[in-house]
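Newbie here. two chains, one complex. Structure please?
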Amino acid sequence: MIVTFNCLQIDLTGSIVKVFLTLKVENAASASDASQVLVAFMPTEVQHLAIVKATRAEGKRKKKAYTPLSVQESDLPTTPNGARLYSVQLSTPLKPGETTTLQVFYVLTHSLDPFPAEISQSESQLVYYRDSAVLLSPYNVLEQVTYIKMPSNRIESFTRVDPTTRAGTELKYGTYNNQMPNTYLPILVHFENNRPFAIVEELVRKVEISHWGNVQITEHYKMKHGGARHKGAFSRSIQLNASWLLTQNFLARLEYQSRPSISGTSSFKNLLARLPPRVHSVYYRDEIGNISSSHLRTDSHKSELEIEPRYPLFGGWHCTFTIGYGLSLQDFLFEADDGRRYINLTFGCPLLDTVVDDLTVKVVLPEGSKNPQPVVPFLAEQHLETSYSYLDVVGRTTVVLKKKNVVGEHNVPFQVHYEFNPIFMLAEPLMLIFAVFLFFVACIAYLHMDLSIGKAS
Amino acid sequence: MAAKAISSPVPVDWYPTLAVIMVSVGLMFTATFFIYEATSSRRSRSLAKEITTAAVASIFLGFGSLFVLLASGVYV
């Protein structure tokens, strides 16, 4: 197997690193059929690798169709320096002498190191990115080129591996010819990146299903600004050195909120959550109560919830908050052909442009549900537990799904199938009826008893 | 897969109305029960009538309180 052409496009414009890899692979003429193509990652990359997706281009130019392929972590031991191999399973094996084009997309989190690690409020944030100028590949690479896209023109330094050219916000490494397998040419890029490094350290999403007509979702966030740490004092009024009018702190705050670009450029003050359409009863609060700075916009396709933390977040600062909302049952709960119920929800975090280090999804099924079976399109740790809510006797079966390193690409539907007999819906009203009836029986018993002291006449 | 959407047995919009109606009917039966208890003497009471009124009142109050919970957003 040889790689005849490889184009590596690295997108560093956000707080996460997105890499698009276009590979033209050829099965060497005298070999047997190939059913997989290996892609190698450095050990430092593997621990930050959030998702790997691959597609195969089929057909000629205009009728080009991309078929998704499955990617598996392969455990072949024959890699130098602990590089890890991922194998892309081809849908149809590649015969000797044939070529095909693969597109691999992967996302790396926590791969931009802020340097300097501490900045004051008026400085902008510079980060390092380390990678290789050529693709780390177990195959011979005949021709390759690497493009790195930066968010701004300000590039402090970059490693030169000739030929290297810089055009505005883009760096081009290559073209390199005839690279041996496992070639690694380290490069280091130092550039300005003021995108908010919004990191959710821990997110617990709790989904409560009620067959009486509601799906209630509660999300607990522990958020952190993962960029360069904030140095010195924070002042809302530093930010308006230009405007002599705004001397009061309150007005200063308004000024910060309306013109964040004056300084504190890497900080962020609002977040956008994309929620399903037809949400109701939305709330946004933390330990000390409701946070009033939020806006909800709804239309027929989606709802957008814009929330502002109580204070703007600078590097290293934390905040915790809770979002909750209700969804109507008929949009999410379905009956499958085999009579089982299933709920269809989106897996990841609804906040845009965030990384979730530790995501827990708890699906609380109604009381009386049996045989829960989650269907998640990727690997996730799962177990069952029992939780108690209003008017529960035996407790509700809860499916717990855990995943680390979750990015926006994980916002895909997942299902939880379970068996449910609608007769269990009557358990709650029957309990209430029984309680009221007990009260009446007590009244009857009391009025029929003779509790008077002394002899009955 | 021809999946069928599942909705609540009673339309969600009816919950507040149902709550008001069922709780008021329930309270009326409760009132009847206590008026009967207070106005009849111990010997002239019929247990069957007491139990029937209590049962009807508790059915209405039970479902009524369920719909109060549902209408106020406590989905049980």
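Moderator note: The beta strands of chain B are 4-5. Residues 12-71 of chain B form one domain. Thread marked as resolved.
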